[in-house]
Amino acid sequence: MELSNKARKWFVATLLVGTFTMSISQSALSTAYPTFMRYFNLPASTVAWLTTGFMLVMSVVMPLSPWLMDNFKFKPLYLTLLAIFAIGTIIIIFAPNFPIMMVGRLMEAVSVGILFPSYQSIILEITPQEHRGAIMGTVGLVMGSALAVGPIISGVVLQVLNWQAIFGLFLIVLVVVFLLASRTIISPREIKATRFDFLSVFYSLGIIGLLYFINEIKQMTSGNYGNWIILVISLVLLGLFVQRQLASKEPLLRLDILKIGNFDLGVALTSLSYMSLITVTIIMPLYYQQVLGMTPLWSGLALVPAAALLSWLNRRSGKMADRVGFKPTIMIGFGLFIVGWLLLLSISGLHNVWLAIIGSMVVEAGNAFAMMPATTLGANSLTDDLIPHGSSIIATIRQIMGSTAVVIATVILGNGNFSAVFLTFLLLEIFAMILVFIIKDSTKKMD
The Major facilitator superfamily (MFS) profile domain covers which part of the protein (predicted)? Predict the structure, then answer.
C-alpha cells in the first residue's frame, strides 16, 4: 500500500512514540530496585526478576511476530499490543504483592517482545529502500535514547513521588498513543492465513532455558547440576525447533534465510555491535564507582555524554549509509569500536574520569554507525514478505547475544579486572571488522 509522505511520517512517529515508551520501561526499573526491595521486603535477587523475567518472556515471543503479522492486520495488532501493555501496567500500579506485580510485568514483556520486530518490519516495508538507512537511524535514535533516559526518568520521579508514579507516567503516554494510533496507523500488509504451529512454539521455549542458564552462570557452583540439565534440555528443544523450521513448508520462522549472504552478516554484525553497547552501559558505571570512587548518581550521569552522542549520530549515520553505502558506514562503526575499547584499555590504569567518558563516547559512537546500518543491510537482502522473519531473527539473536555479553563481562571482571574486559571486547570487535570485509556491495533477494 502506497502512503503519502505526510501519512508515512505520522505513521512512523506514532509507532516510535509507543515503542519509545515501552523501551523506557526496560531500563527504567534498575534505578528503582532499592525502592522495590523496601516496599515488598525482598532481596535484590528476587526483585531482579522484574528485568530477568521480562527479558526471558520477551525473547520467547519474538519468533511469533512473523506469524501474527501474516495472519492479522497490523492496526488491530498494534492497538492490541498497546492495550496488553497498558493492562499489565495497571496491574503493576495496583499490585498488592510482588507475584501480582510480576504478572503485570510479564504482560508488558509479551507486548514488547512482539512489537519490537513487528514495528521495525513495518517501517522497513513502507519505506523505499534508498531511504531505509535514514529511517532506521531514527529507530536507533529512539532505542538508544530510551536506554539512556529510562534510569534518569525513574530517578527524577522517585525523588518527588512513589514508584507507582513511574508506571502511571507510562500509562498516560500509552493512552495518548492509543488514541493517536487509532487515527494514524493503517494496515499496509496483505493478510495470508497460515497454520499456527503449536509444536514449534513449544520447542522455542528452549530460548527461555538457554537465557536462564546464561544469566545463572555467575551464581553457579560446582554441584549445581540442575542448571546443566536445563541447558541440555534447552539445547535439545532448540535443535528440534531449528530442524522443524527448516523442514516445514509453512515454518513459524524462516530460518532458511540465514543462508543469504548479507543477511547472515547483518545478523552477526548487529549482534556484535549490541554486545559492545550493552557491555559499556553496564561495566562503565561499575568502573566509575569501584575504580574512580564516584557515587551511583554521578556514575549514571557520566554515561549521559555517550548516550547523547549515540542519539545524535544515529540518524546521521543512517543518511550516510543511504548516500555512500552500508559497507563503508559499518566499517566506520567497527573502527570506532576498536578505537574506543583500545582507548579504555590504555587508560584503565590512569584513573581519569574524562578519558573514561571519552572512551565510552567513542564506543557508543561506533554503535551508531554499526548496529542499525547492519540491521538495514540484512533487511535489504530480503523481499518484503521475508522482512518480518528477518526482523524477528535479528531481534531474538541480538537479545541472546546481549545477555551473553553481560555474563562474559561480569565473569571476566571478577573482583575488578576491568582491563581484561576491555581487552576481550577489543578482540571481539576486531573479529567483527574481519566480517565487515566480507559484505557484498549488492544484495540478491530471496523469494
Answer: 11-444
Q: What is the CA radius of gyration of the chain?
A: 21
Closest to 66 (Cα-Cα) out of 122, 137, 16 = 122
HSE-CB for 85 with a 13 A CA cutoff: 34
286 and 424 both lie in a single domain: yes
Reported as a single tens digit per residue, the pLDDT across 144-161 is 777 667 766 777 777 788
Tell whether 62 and 173 lie within a shared domain: yes
Domain at 362, CATH number: 1.20.1250.20
Q: In this structure, are 135 and 160 located in the same domain? A: yes
Q: Give, rounded to a whole angstrom, the gap between the first and last alpha carbons of the chain.
A: 20
pLDDT at residue 217, rounded to an integer: 76
Identity of the amino acid at 78: Y
- 134 and 90 part of one domain: yes
Handedness of CA 421, 427, 428, 432 (dihedral sign): positive
Total number of domains in the chain: 3
pLDDT, tens only, 411-436? 888 777 889 999 999 999 999 999 99
Going by C-alpha positions, the residue among 25, 26, 48 that lies closest to residue 36 is 48
DSSP secondary-structure letter at 382? Answer: B
Considering the entire predicted model, what is its pTM?
A: 0.83
Q: Which three cell numbers stand for residue 85?
A: 501493555
**Burial (Cβ within 10 Å: 0-12, 13-18, ≥19) of residue 361:** buried
**Residue whose grid cell is 571481539:** 428
d(CA 325, CA 157): 43
Cell (9 digits) for 1? 500500500
In this structure, the answer to whether residues 264 and 174 fall within a common structural domain is: no
Cα(78)–Cα(109) distance, rounded to whole angstroms? 14
Q: State the residue for C-alpha cell 509479551.
A: 110
pLDDT tens column, 75-117: 899 999 999 999 999 999 999 999 999 999 999 989 988 988 8
**Cell numbers describing residue 175:** 493512552
Looking at the structure, tell me whether residues 234 and 284 fall in a common domain: no
284 and 207 share a domain?
no
The reported pLDDT for the residue numbered 101 is 92
Q: Which three cell numbers stand for residue 378?
A: 540484512
In this structure, are residues 299 and 289 in contact, taking their beta carbons and an 8 Å threshold? yes
Contact assessment for residue 166 and residue 154, using Cβ atoms and an 8 Å cutoff: yes
